[in-house]
């Protein structure tokens, strides 16, 4: 039986921060569902925190904030900022 990509998400926890990992095979579907696929593939996407162009080669993550999905590059600083932004919102 085939599972949806949501059922295949892997939950990880780093300290106080919980995040979900998407398998590379499901990444295109996830980006399409969030309306970010073409921006990432065509290089139009930008990191929410530092503004660098985000493509498949440097995509670090995607997060939702106030109902909208945003891209994050693979910079440790930007990923950390995204994690804390989400953690603060959940409090």
General description of the model:
With 91 residues, the protein is α+β, with helices and mostly antiparallel strands. The chain has one domain (10-90). Helices cover 30% and strands 30% of the residues. It is built from 3 helices and 6 strands; from the N terminus they run ββααββββα. The protein has helices spanning 27-33, 37-41, 76-90; strands spanning 10-14, 17-21, 45-46, 53-54, 59-65, 68-73. The protein has a two-stranded antiparallel ribbon with strand order 1-2. A hairpin with a 2-residue loop joins strand 1 (10-14) and strand 2. The longest helix is centred in the last third of the chain and has 15 residues, at 76-90. The radius of gyration is 13 Å and the shape is globular. The chain starts with 9 loop residues before the first strand and ends with a helix.
Termini Cα gap: 37 Å
Strand order of the largest sheet: 1-2
Q: How many separate structural domains?
A: 1
Number of strands: 6
The portion of residues forming beta strands comes to 25-35%
| 3D shape | globular
Average pLDDT reading: 83
The arrangement of helices and strands along the chain is EEHHEEEEH
The structural class is alpha+beta
Count of helical stretches: 3
Uncertain residue segments:
1-7
**Measured on Cα atoms, how large is the radius of gyration?**
13 Å
Helix content: 25-40%
Q: How would a textbook summarize the main sheet?
A: 2 strands, antiparallel
């Amino acid at each position: 039986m085939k599972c949806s990509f949501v059922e295949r998400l892997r939950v990880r926890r780093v300290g106080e921060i919980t995040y979900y990992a998407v398998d590379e095979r499901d990444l295109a579907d996830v980006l399409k569902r969030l309306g970010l696929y073409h921006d990432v593939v065509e290089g139009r996407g930008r990191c929410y925190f530092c503004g660098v162009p985000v493509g498949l080669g440097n995509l670090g993550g995607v997060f939702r904030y106030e109902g909208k999905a945003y891209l994050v590059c693979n910079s440790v600083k930007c990923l950390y900022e995204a994690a804390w932004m989400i953690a603060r919102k959940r409090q």
